[in-house]
Amino acid sequence: MTQIRPAKPQDVPAIAEVFIAAFADSVRHIAAGPGAATGLADLFSLALRAEPGCLMVAEDKGRVVGYLLSSADVRRLRRRAFWQGGWLRLLWRALTGAYGLTWRALAIVRRDKLSFLRGYKVAAEVHARVVSVGVLPNHQGRGIGRRLIEAGLRRLQACGCERVRLEVRPGNAPARRIYESFGFEAQGSYSDSQGEWLIMVKEVETAPDAP
């Protein structure tokens, strides 16, 4: 039986490997090789330090086979990450070649970040966010992604979040069906270097004991 639980720091390398397997095309678009896993692990570690509890994992027979990254307030997460020095470490390691990024890849990252910020004006008042969810390809179709989303939404509800946002590729029909079954509705879109993102928002009933 697959167990859904909060991630621990030691899970981060395995989470990075799940991301690489689940989103292979996106990873190849930016970087390849061992540096990609290192960079992703650093990003997930940064998020976990800035917002403990933001990462959930699906574990099957002692192996991490899926993950979900969500934030109760992405603005606060970014601020904490900045003041903890995490962004500066990431930037330094990227510029010094630790992640195997070329100048072309860095330019793509910068362009995509600007596109994301423009897209963020859509439903900009929604600060809770499902940032990323991924499952190993050979474990997809077993309901693991749905269980991860359920767990993430319960946490956001317990944090007092009233609305939650996520982004999905319009052509990813299986993911869209899952999100729509949870009550997510399309609110707009934006595009990056790989194509269009659909922005979806869900109303969340606040938990009675939420802070």
Please render the helix and strand layout as text.
Blueprint (H helix, E strand, L loop, with lengths): L2 E4 L5 H11 L1 H7 L3 H17 L4 E6 L2 E9 L2 H10 L2 H10 L7 H17 L8 E8 L8 H15 L4 E6 L4 H9 L3 E8 L2 E9 L8
Parallel strand pairs: 4-5
Antiparallel strand pairs: 1-2, 2-3, 3-4, 5-7, 6-7
Helix pairs in contact: 1-3, 3-4, 3-5
Number of strands: 7
Work out the helix count: 8
Indicate the structural class.
Answer: alpha+beta
Question: Overall pLDDT, averaged?
Answer: 87
Strand content: 15-25%
CATH hierarchy, class:
Alpha Beta
Helix-strand pattern: EHHHEEHHHEHEHEE
CATH fold category name? Aminopeptidase
Describe the structure.
This protein has 211 residues and is an alpha+beta fold. The protein has a single domain, classed as Aminopeptidase (3-Layer(aba) Sandwich), CATH 3.40.630.30. The protein has 8 helices and 7 strands. Strand 2 and strand 3 form a beta hairpin. Helix 3 runs antiparallel to helix 5. The protein starts with a strand and ends in an 8-residue tail after the last strand. The model has no long low-confidence stretch (mean pLDDT 87).
